[in-house]
Every structure is written in C-alpha cells, then in structure tokens.
C-alpha cells in the first residue's frame, strides 16, 4: 500500500480522471485429509484488487493492488502493489517507471525464462502469480526487433505458505531472516535485457539477467531444527525462447543457463500446442498442450499433458485438465478445472487436484512426497466491480 | 457411310464450339466476378487509419440478449493487408484482452493475443479462424479483412435486394483452413458496397446469412456499415454488431500496432 504522501497524491489525482475498476474474490479449498503437519481441512480466503488505468495516448498510468486475507495461514495474507507505473512514449523509445509485472516466455506449463518478478507461491503452484517489481524499463522498437532494458530496483522475497498453510514443504521456512550473497542484500539493483523479434512464422527472444535470484536455495537453520533458511544468491541467467507456427501447430521451447548457485546448470521446457477447432461437428474447440521438462539439478524430467475444452458459448465455459507424470518415480499429478461466467459480473471456477500417493519406494526421489495428503477441491468466485 | 462420318464430324465440331463458348463464358464470369470484387475492395482505399467502438449483441432463439463491447483500431497498409487491434471492454472478466492482426494478401495472417492478467503476449495460429469469436455467431474469419486475393470468383447474376440493384457474385476461399466452402455476396451497383453474404459451410449447407446495414459515408469517400447482423440458420441464434464513434485519420502509426503496444492496451 502507498506509504509516501507523494504516492497518495498521485493516486488521488488519478482517481479524478482515470478509470477505476476492481475485483473481489472468494476462494475456498477443501482438503480431503488433514495435513502432514496437522493443518486444517478447510481453508478460505478473500482477496480484493482495485485498479486504476489512464491512457493519455503517449502517457499511461496504471495502478493495481492486491490484498488477500486467509482464514488459516497468515503466510498467505498479502498486501502487494502489483502495478504502479507511468509509461512515457517518446519519439524513439518508451520508458516505464515504477512497479510492474513483466512476463517473458512461450511455454504453457512451466516458465523457465520468466525472471523479472518474484513468484507468489501461496496463490498457486503453477508459478504464474507474481509480485510487483520496482523498475526502470526502456524499450526500443526498431526494424531489428524489440529491445527491453531493465534496471530492477530492490528485491522482493518469495512468498511461502506458513506452518498452518497448504501446500507447504515438510520443513518450515524462515521467511523473516533470509540470507543474501550480496552485501547490499535486498537493496541491490539488478539488470536485465531482452531482445525479441519474429520472422514470418518464427518467433525468437534472447535475454540475460544479472542479479539476485528470484528462486532461493535453502540452508538448514543454525538455530532451529526442522527449519530452512532461504538464501538468495547473485546469479547470471541467459535465456532463449523460440516458437515456430507450423500451420495450426505451435512448436515451442525455452531454455536457460544459470551460474551463481553452485555449479552452472541448464533447464529447459519444450513441446507443442495445438487446437482442434469445432470438434465432432460442434462449436467446441479442443486445445492440446504437450510439454517436456529438463533440469540439470533434478534426476527426473516431468512430462505434462494438458487439454482445454472451450465451449464457445456466451458463458465462456471451459474445462481444463492436466496430467503431470514424473518419468523416474512414476508419480502422477492430476488437475481438473471447470470455469464459466455467471451473469455479466462474475466468474466461477471449480478445481480438483489429485496427487498419486504411491508409497512404493523405487529408490527415486519423489516430487509430490510432501503433498501426498494434499488432494483438494477448490471453488473460486470472482465478482468484478 | 460418308454421310454418317460427316454427321459425326459436324456434331463434333458443334460440340467443340459449344465447349469453347462455355469456357469463354465461364472465364468471362470469373473475370466479371473478380472485377466487381476489386471495385468493392477499392472503395475504402486511402482511409489511412480508422477507429471505432463496437457493441455486439448475442441473441439466442428465445430472444435473450447479452452484450459485449470492444474498441477497434485499424491501420491501412497499402502494399499488404491492413493491421488492426481489437480490445475487449466487456464482459468484465475479459476486459483488456486484445487481439492484434496483420492481414496478408495471400499467406496466412499474423495474430497475437494479449492476456492482461498474465501480462503475456501470445502468438496464435491464425489457421484456427473458423471458430466462434467471443461466443458469437461471427467467426474469427468473419472479423478478418477479406483481401481480394484470398478468393476465387464467379459472377452469378443481378438481383434487386431491398430496392437496390445488386450484383451477385460467388467467392470460394482459397485457404483450406477456411470454415466456408463458398460465399454468395450481394454488392450494390451504385456504390459497390457489400449488402449481404450467404455463408456455406464445409458440407455446402447454407449456414449463415450476414447483413450489412446503415452505411454512412465519412470524409466524402469512406463507407462504414453501422450495423452488421449475422444469422445462424442451424442453431437459430444471431449476433448484431453495432459500430459507433467512427473516426478516420487519428494519426496512428506502426508503433500503435506492434506486439509491444498490446502491452500498453490495458
């Protein structure tokens, strides 16, 4: 929330002229079992996101905040400024100043290259919920493509579920005292650059990030047993994104190479996306996503199959399903989500997640071991103001 | 014997002549169809750029109406197809979603989708164009610019439609990904404006009828229909698109139609 009088002044001046909208959301998760750490079965949360937008053709102002309150887990409470920026469009460049979110990447199920913003892991484990990042961004659009140059001012720590929260790791995480490899800790200015362009049906982007890793490693706590301390190290990460459209088939991949967290390593996600328009002589579209993962740090290479039925009705009804299969441990995760619009004001989505809790020990590290009692149903209702 | 062979030769000669005449006539009617299509397409040449708001009313069999609102911007590209951006205003859950299209004369259009919640610009396959647009009876294809080069033409007839003398031409999409096998197009003889289209689906069934109404002239030459109605004969539903706040020459540039500009649309 705004702290300085200047920010409040800016907000109020925009209140008079900008467009104000908002979102209220109610979210209930029901877990079939008590947690491994005796967490409760029912978790409810409310969130509110006010938003102001003003477009003066070559000056743009955007403000969006997100406030969340959880019934069980204070680690899931959130007061975050997602957007608070001004864009100034000049003759030969564009300058964005303030807090914002920036997405990099082409794949659907896992985002390797995306690194500007910190992830809010308490919202969902797809890693798509982000925290606002203060920045100065300069964009140059030329014949040879788009070049974005970022100075990232200050660091946001990753959000984790608290001890009473779900889903969580078996050990608790000390979020109050994270360690940094840089002496400037969370005040370090980080830098990033990304070039992107497209040539007919081929899209490409190359990026580099130099700064505090958004993804921490963990050390055992010196003071407390069963506690982990996140350590945020300074890394260099180079990323490549490519996508090729072969008729209706999108072939895509992202790969990164990172140094600064022990040995240099690579990680990649690659696969296909295809949409069948009007399946079985109906107006329903069926989208397919197949993605493979590789990470030098992991033994296993999970594979994901996703489908999306879009009913193309006035309610925008959709049914989404996803399988994740861990090749080595033979574990399976399954997600089913159905959503539709209600009236003109609201959205309802129902989601179920199941982790295959095979106790069979085949000597492989398990990805979902910590979540084996965390199968749940979720209902989310959003009201748009 | 000789008489008989003479008769055969004569018959053959007459048959060949007939075939040639049929071919020439076919060629002529193809040419005439193309000529009318070109004149109709030329109509709005030189508009430079345009913008408007769109209200789309989706009406079901019982007559229940739901409304969607969009903003639309278009930039003329003289040597290729036009560039355009459609930004969704309502319903609220899709507010800020935007579609950027670069139409091309022959090859497939380029398209990008902007998802404001993720702040993601996603390249999409324009081949998936036969699907419904925003749950309406319009398909993505009906929304894209219908470049002359994308069809094969045939002149059919003249017909009076709503007191307007019209040419009726048939066009067949050359793109195998089109949802239509053919379209019958009514174009008025006075101003060469499209008045009506019958869309035939892949089974050559008359699937939809599209009506263009309330044409108004801007800057002395640019004709904009202020209402386009699409009736689906299969499911009994219809969608009505109403254009407002039409403006020409706002001074848009290529920068207003880039992938980067999508991120500024909301």
3D architecture notes:
- The complex is a heterodimer of chains A (385) and B (266).
- Chain A is mostly beta strands and 385 residues long.
- Chain A has one domain (5-384): Porin, CATH 2.40.160.
- Helix content of chain A is 3%, strand content 54%.
- Chain A has one helix at residues 5-17; strands spanning 19-31, 42-55, 59-70, 78-89, 94-100, 133-142, 145-153, 172-173, 179-180, 189-199, 202-212, 217-220, 227-232, 234-246, 249-259, 265-276, 285-295, 303-310, 318-325, 332-342, 346-355, 376-384.
- Chain B is an alpha+beta fold and 266 residues long.
- Chain B has one domain (42-262): Lipoprotein localisation LolA/LolB/LppX (outer membrane lipoprotein receptor (LolB), chain A).
- In chain B, a hairpin with an 8-residue loop joins β8 and β9 (182-188).
- Chain B is elongated.
- The termini of chain B are far apart.
- At the A-B interface, loops of A face β6 of B.
């Amino acid at each position: 929330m705004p702290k300085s009088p200047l920010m409040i002044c800016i907000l109020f001046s925009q209140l008079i002229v900008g467009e104000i909208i908002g979102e209220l959301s109610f979210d209930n998760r029901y877990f079939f079992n008590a947690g491994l750490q005796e967490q409760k079965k029912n978790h409810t949360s409310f969130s509110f996101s006010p938003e102001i937008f003003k477009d003066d053709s070559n000056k743009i102002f955007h403000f969006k905040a997100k406030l969340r309150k959880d019934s069980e887990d204070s680690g899931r409470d959130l007061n975050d400024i997602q957007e608070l920026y001004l864009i100034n469009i000049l003759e030969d460049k564009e300058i964005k100043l303030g807090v914002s979110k920036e997405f990099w990447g082409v794949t659907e199920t896992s985002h390797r290259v995306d690194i500007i913003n910190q992830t809010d892991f308490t919202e969902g484990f797809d890693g798509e919920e982000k925290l606002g990042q203060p920045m100065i961004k300069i964009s140059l659009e030329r014949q040879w493509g788009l070049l974005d140059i970022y100075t990232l001012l200050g660091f946001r720590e990753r959000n984790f579920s608290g001890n009473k929260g779900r889903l969580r790791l078996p050990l608790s995480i000390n979020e109050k005292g994270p360690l940094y490899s840089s002496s400037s800790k969370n005040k370090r200015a980080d830098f990033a650059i990304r070039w992107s362009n497209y040539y007919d049906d081929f899209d490409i982007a190359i990026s580099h990030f130099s700064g505090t890793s958004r993804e921490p490693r963990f050390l055992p706590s010196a003071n407390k047993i069963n506690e982990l301390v996140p350590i945020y190290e300074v890394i260099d990460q180079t990323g490549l994104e490519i996508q090729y459209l072969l008729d209706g088939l999108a072939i895509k991949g992202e790969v990164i190479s990172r140094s600064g967290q022990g040995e240099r390593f690579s990680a990649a996600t690659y696969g296909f996306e295809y949409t069948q328009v009007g399946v079985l002589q109906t107006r329903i579209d069926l989208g397919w996503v197949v993605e493979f993962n590789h990470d030098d740090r992991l033994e296993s290479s999970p594979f994901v199959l996703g489908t999306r039925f879009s009913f193309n009705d006035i309610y925008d009804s959709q049914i989404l399903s996803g399988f994740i299969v861990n090749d080595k441990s033979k574990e399976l995760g399954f997600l089913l989500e159905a959503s539709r619009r209600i009236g003109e004001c609201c959205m309802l989505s129902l989601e179920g997640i199941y982790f295959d809790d095979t106790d069979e020990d085949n000597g492989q590290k398990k990805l979902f071991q910590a979540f084996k009692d965390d199968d749940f149903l979720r209902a989310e209702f959003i009201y748009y103001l | 014997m000789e008489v008989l062979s003479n008769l055969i030769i004569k018959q053959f000669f007459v048959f060949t002549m007939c075939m040639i005449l049929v071919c020439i006539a076919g060629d002529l009617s193809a040419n005439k169809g193309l000529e009318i299509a070109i004149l109709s397409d030329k109509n709005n040449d030189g508009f430079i750029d345009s913008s408007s708001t769109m209200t789309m009313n989706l009406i079901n069999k019982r007559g229940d109406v739901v409304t969607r609102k969009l903003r639309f911007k278009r930039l003329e590209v003289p040597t290729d197809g036009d560039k355009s951006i459609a930004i969704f205003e309502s319903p609220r859950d899709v507010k800020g979603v935007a579609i950027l299209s670069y139409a091309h004369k022959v090859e497939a259009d380029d398209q990008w989708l902007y998802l404001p919640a993720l702040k993601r610009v996603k390249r999409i396959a324009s081949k998936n164009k036969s699907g419904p647009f925003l749950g309406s009876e319009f398909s993505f294809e009906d929304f894209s610019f219908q470049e002359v080069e994308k069809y094969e033409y045939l002149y059919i007839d003249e017909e009076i439609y709503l007191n307007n003398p019209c040419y009726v031409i048939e066009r067949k999409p050359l793109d195998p990904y089109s949802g239509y096998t053919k379209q019958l197009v009514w174009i008025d003889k006075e101003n060469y404006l499209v008045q009506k289209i019958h869309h035939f689906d892949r089974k050559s069934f008359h699937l939809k009828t599209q009506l263009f109404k309330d044409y108004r002239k801007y800057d002395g030459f640019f004709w904009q229909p202020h209402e386009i109605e699409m009736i689906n004969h299969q499911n009994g539903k219809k969608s009505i698109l109403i254009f407002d706040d039409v403006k020409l020459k706002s001074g848009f540039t290529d920068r207003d139609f880039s992938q980067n500009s999508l991120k500024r649309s909301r």
